[in-house]
Amino acid sequence: MVRSMTGFGQANRSFAGYTVQMDVKSVNHRYCEVQVRIPREWLKYEDLLKRTVQQEIKRGRLDVFVTVERAADASGTMEINWAAAEAYRSAAEQLKAKFGVEGTVTIQDYLRIPDLISYREAVEAAEEDLEREWTHCVQEAVQHLVLMRTSEGSHLGEDTLQRVQALESFLEQARQLAPQAVQDYAGKLRLRIQELMQQPVIDEVRLATEVAIFADRANVDEEITRLLSHFQQCRQLLSSPEPIGRKLDFLVQEMNREVNTIGSKANHSGLTAIVVEMKAELEKMREQIQNIE
Fold it and tell me: What is the DSSP letter of 124?
């Protein structure tokens, strides 16, 4: 199953007096990289979310955006850290005595102290229950992401298959044209020798030898065979359930190498034109494959 590396998924869940929303966005990346943006007071669940995402996604850069809001009907109490408040008041008194400054500590000053006042739920959930809820929420968001990646991946797979078919058609044209390239070379060589010697009689044995050397040097049977094998492997990969992006990228590189070799061997305008068309198709295929997981 071909999957794209771009997509988006979202999920909402309410538990323990909170409403949690998770947005998961993915783009192309060579490896699997997960970044979680979560409110500071919930940072302890960051690694849990990363591991859960990586269980399903194998390639791509993923950004997980977490929004946490207290439910409208949530009940609880505000708790004051009296020890911290006393410590701040004592420190203020010492500063006044030390430096002889005037002033008093107001309620606004106390409210600015970080973590001095905290909210305590009326009914606290067990840690394993909270972990389960966080896990289920991100799993749901990832499922929606995977659906989008799979939908786009199917289009990428179809496009890649069509390009393979086009390449096979071009390759068949090249295979049929290759013998003609040798014949054309023989005719050009004969005319060139006649021009240089300025006589109609030439050494047919020497001519046949030169043509045979050219035919051996210009033979592209091995390249055609390897290309056909690469095309078959590409078709097999497109039906594989595993992530195939890297393997396809490698295959395209190998195909490009064989096509370049055919181009360097072929001293023929018709074969050169076919090679140009094949390289254009391979470049389009490479661009599409960059987005496959």
Answer: P
> Are 197 and 204 spatial neighbours (Cβ–Cβ below 8 Å)?
no
**Residue 235 is which amino acid?**
R
Q: Is 259 exposed, middle or buried (0-12, 13-18, 19+ CB in 10 A)?
A: buried
Q: Helix count (H) and strand count (E) of the chain?
A: 8, 6
Cβ(6)–Cβ(26) below 8 Å: yes
DSSP 200: S
Distance between alpha carbon 184 and the CA centroid of its chain, in Å? 47
- Cross-strand partners of 118: 79
Q: Using CA atoms, how far apart are residues 289 and 209, in angstroms rounded to an integer?
A: 45
Q: Which residue has the tokens 């979202």?
A: 10
One-letter amino acid of 32: C
Task: HSE, CB side, 13 Å, CA atoms: give it for residue 237.
Answer: 25
Q: Cα separations (Å) of 57 from 17, 31, 32, 137, 165?
A: 30, 10, 7, 16, 30
Condensed to tens digits (0 to 9), the pLDDT of residues 100-154 reads 888 888 888 888 888 788 766 544 668 888 999 999 999 999 999 999 999 999 9
Instruction: Judge whether 68 and 18 are in contact, CB under 8 Å.
Output: yes
pLDDT in tens, 69-96: 887 655 566 788 888 888 888 888 888 8
Which tokens sit at 277? 């068309």
For 145-211, the DSSP string reads HHHHHHHHHHHHHHHHHHHHHHHHHHHHHHHHHHHHHHHHHHHHHHHHHHHHHTSS---HHHHHHHH
